[in-house]
Amino acid sequence: MSSNILHTSLLRPPILHILRAAGFHATKPHVLDTLVDLAARYLSMLALNATAHAEENHNDSIPNITDVRMALEDVGAFQPQKSAMEERITGEQDRSGIDAFLRWMKGGEHREIRRIAGLVETEGLMLGIDVPADKEDFLTGTRHCVCWNLDD
After folding, report:
1. Is 21 within 8 Å of 119 (Cβ atoms)?
2. What is the pLDDT of residues 76-135, one digit of tens each?
3. Which of the listed residues 72, 102, 139, 145 has the most CB atoms within 10 Å of its CB?
4. What is the pLDDT of residues 78-87, one digit of tens each?
5. CA distances from 10 to 17, 78, 109, 114, 147 (A)
6. Claim: this prediction has a pTM higher than 0.85
């Protein structure tokens, strides 16, 4: 098995979980393969950019958090509002892109994805965000049914 096939097969379950959390309960195989390919390309580009920044900044191929932040800016995940010249003039680093990214990730549209990923505590709270307890994904529902049938 080539490493490319292995990496693609390892990316399929997370993409399926994201699709399920977004409300899709079925998809065609070629659509899933396209989404997996896009995710793989994005992650590869992010990793290559982070490694390049690490080599440029501190002559090491292992990136630190600053290198990852710069790579996220390169791929468009962080959109700074100020130019490098404005940052130098004010003496402050522009964190508006990072703050907007964090608001987007902690927002309500990702609540279900976090719940399916298991990032929600048992009380239904994660990062101070309430998650509705009545929503249940397929695997959780199946587990409840199996446990209920075993008790009979």
Report:
1. no
2. 887 777 777 887 888 887 778 778 878 877 887 777 777 777 776 544 444 444 445 555
3. 72
4. 777 777 788 7
5. 12, 26, 25, 19, 29
6. no
Is residue 72 within 8 A of residue 88, CB to CB? The reply is: no
Q: Give the DSSP H/E element, type plus range, for residue 126.
A: strand 125-126
Contacts by 131-140, CB closer than 8 A, 24 or more apart: 137/20, 137/21, 138/20, 138/25
Bridge partners of 125, per DSSP, are: 130
Q: Amino acid identity of 40?
A: A
CA 145 to CA 70: how far, in whole Å?
Answer: 47
